[in-house]
Specification:
The structure holds 2 protein chains of 2 kinds. Chain A has one domain. In chain A, 73% of the residues lie in helices and 0% in strands. Chain A has 12 helices and no strands. In chain A, helix 2 (34-55) packs antiparallel against helix 3 (73-98) and helix 5 (116-144) crosses helix 6. Mean pLDDT of chain B is 90; it is low at 1-5, 7-11 and 254-258. In chain B, the strands form 2 sheets. In chain B, strands 6-7-8-3-9-10 form a 6-stranded mixed sheet, sandwiched between helices. The longest helix of chain B is centred in the last third of the chain and has 18 residues, at 179-196. Chain B is globular and about 50 Å long. In chain B, helix 5 packs parallel to helix 6 and helix 7 crosses helix 8. Chain B is an alpha/beta fold. The chains are: A mainly alpha, B alpha/beta. At the A-B interface, helix 1, helix 4 and helix 12 of A face helix 1, helix 2 and helix 3 of B.
Chain lengths: 276, 258
């Protein structure tokens, strides 16, 4: 009989296997949860086909960076809808990590010998991969609605922006899921996180437009990390970089992630206090 | 079997050592100076009523929580300070179901293998023997949701053995199963100890799952009341059965009976 060797700590190879495994499982689960996929796709399409079409005449968009010509309102809100897909996905996957059915699988994840920060990050990366699939599906449909980047390269340059903004929203969700007991159902998250972040941002209207109506709201929007996720995606889709947004989104990602990892630390984290 | 899932018996080695573990949720003390040792190659039973602190202890052993005071060592590896090695030495079966029911048996194993750092080819090499051992050899491509409750539990056991842990710990593994499936799971794990030299910690509130020569740790209201072979606990209490001895020790009635 083979004797189990003295266990070795994970090396780079094991960590890589672990990361690939977590992303692979999330992808498989996503493919099996058709309702989740359809819901994730219908939500932005409703905004695009109904809301944007209705607002097309009311809301003129002047030429602001990154746009060099007048754009239709549908073009304007598409980056915001991409970010919205990621916002929903980030909140959903992170919250489900702790609550209800997923508690068991979270425990399974955390008994891996890999360091806990690595496991949580791997889980985030997996969620981001799924959110990019969702965005890609949206963009395919939007393409037939004649919403497309100025060059096909836009589909490539938007990818790193989506990866970063997805990480930020996933990390935020993970942090919220660990810290706030009251947000135990998704309706609460909708009301207190998703709606304020989405509406107080540049997703639906440019900030100069908001400032005309309410200067303080414009300031709030400018401070909202979601605004910067939207602008990062908007610029990347037009093959440009918004450095301020890049800095804000990177900083927020690091901050949220560090706090989430602290919150999941076995010595002080939420799991200990709550009693599993 | 060509590949044994577990390490061979190492005489006199300590598989699990719990030392002065105390844990509180707010003001409520869930574990109070809990200490015991479970030797390698032994079927040990952690016995206690619901609310005795078993789940808290289980969470501390699996490093879901860190203990506020005290230490837990798995084959000498401290769970808090050397968690990588300690967790690599542990095979865990949780009380709640942790299979992805929409994924196939093989996909579940591949995922767990990856979490343990095993490549897909390595997992595939090991899975045949393990599934044969738990009687699921022909179910490789079935979705987990199509397995019965007992079969799902057996798959979870096979999965926990995939990375060849030195200690298998199970949290109320027979909860929610019917009598046949219960006996089936218990027999399976006992066979692992008898033939493969596995070290097992079996957590339960069902007294009849312990046998005379098992090491039994009685946990009650966060404290260890007894730690000995079942027959010795019975003899010391002057009782005729383990359930009578348990009642005498805890002053509890009824619930923890067979």
């Amino acid at each position: 009989m083979s004797v189990a060797a003295e266990p070795r700590p994970f090396g780079l190879r094991e960590l890589f296997i672990c990361l690939v495994g977590v992303v692979w499982r999330e992808g498989l689960r996503f493919l099996h949860q058709r309702e989740r996929f359809v819901a994730a796709l219908v939500r932005p399409l409703v905004w695009l086909f109904i809301f944007a079409a209705g607002f097309r005449q009311t809301l003129g968009i002047s030429i602001i960076p990154p746009y060099e010509t007048y754009v239709l309102y549908e073009d304007y809100i598409t980056p915001g809808l991409m970010a919205m897909i990621q916002l929903f996905n980030g909140m959903q996957s992170s919250l489900s990590m702790v609550y209800d059915r997923e508690m068991g699988s979270m425990r399974l994840l955390l008994v891996s010998p890999a360091p806990r920060w690595f496991l949580l990050t791997a889980k985030l990366v997996a969620g981001v991969a799924v959110s990019i699939l969702q965005v890609a599906a949206y963009l395919v449909i939007a393409y037939f609605w004649e919403i497309e980047p100025p060059s096909l390269w836009g589909y490539v340059t938007v990818l790193p922006a989506l990866a970063l903004s997805g990480l930020m929203m996933g990390a935020l969700g993970m942090l919220l899921s660990s810290l706030i007991r009251q947000l135990e159902n998704f309706a609460g998250v909708m009301n207190f996180v998703i709606f304020p972040m989405f509406f107080a941002s540049s997703a639906l209207y440019p900030l100069w437009r908001v400032r005309e109506g309410s200067p303080w709201l414009a300031d709030v929007c400018a401070l909202n990390p979601f605004t910067h996720a939207v602008e990062l995606i908007r610029f990347a889709f037009y093959l440009k970089v918004n450095w301020l947004s890049l800095a804000v989104v990177s900083g927020c990602t690091i901050g949220f992630l560090a706090l989430a990892i602290l919150a999941y630390d076995p010595a002080r984290g939420v799991l200990t206090r709550r009693g599993g | 079997m060509t590949a044994e899932p577990l390490s061979s018996r190492v005489e006199s080695a300590i598989a699990l050592e719990v030392e002065n573990v105390t844990h509180a949720y707010g003001a409520r003390l869930a574990l109070d100076q809990v200490s015991f040792k479970s030797p390698a190659g032994q079927f040990a039973v952690l016995l206690g009523l619901n609310g005795a602190g078993k789940s808290t202890l289980f969470s501390i052993i699996t490093h879901l929580y860190a203990c506020r005071s005290g230490a837990v060592r798995v084959f000498g590896h401290d769970v808090a300070r050397d968690s990588g090695r300690a967790l690599a030495s542990l095979g865990v079966v949780f009380q709640s179901r942790t299979l992805d029911i929409d994924l196939s048996v093989e996909q579940n194993l591949l995922y767990h293998g990856a979490l343990q750092g095993l490549s897909r080819s390595e997992t595939r090499r090991r899975q045949g023997d393990l599934l044969a051992r738990v009687g699921l050899a022909d179910r490789l491509s079935d979705k987990a949701r199509h397995l019965s409750g007992g079969q799902q539990r057996r798959l979870e056991i096979a999965r926990a053995l995939l990375h060849r842990p030195r200690l298998l710990i199970l949290d109320e593994p027979t909860a929610g199963l019917d009598l046949n499936a219960r006996a089936d799971i218990l027999g399976l794990v006992r066979a692992l100890v008898a033939d493969a030299g596995a070290s097992v910690l079996w957590t339960t509130h069902l007294i009849d799952e312990a046998q005379a020569d098992d090491l039994v740790i009685v946990l009650h209201r966060g404290r260890v009341l007894a730690e000995d072979r079942a027959e010795a606990i019975v003899a010391r209490a002057g009782a005729t059965s383990l359930s009578a001895a348990f009642r005498a020790l805890t002053g509890a009635d009824g619930e923890a009976e067979a």
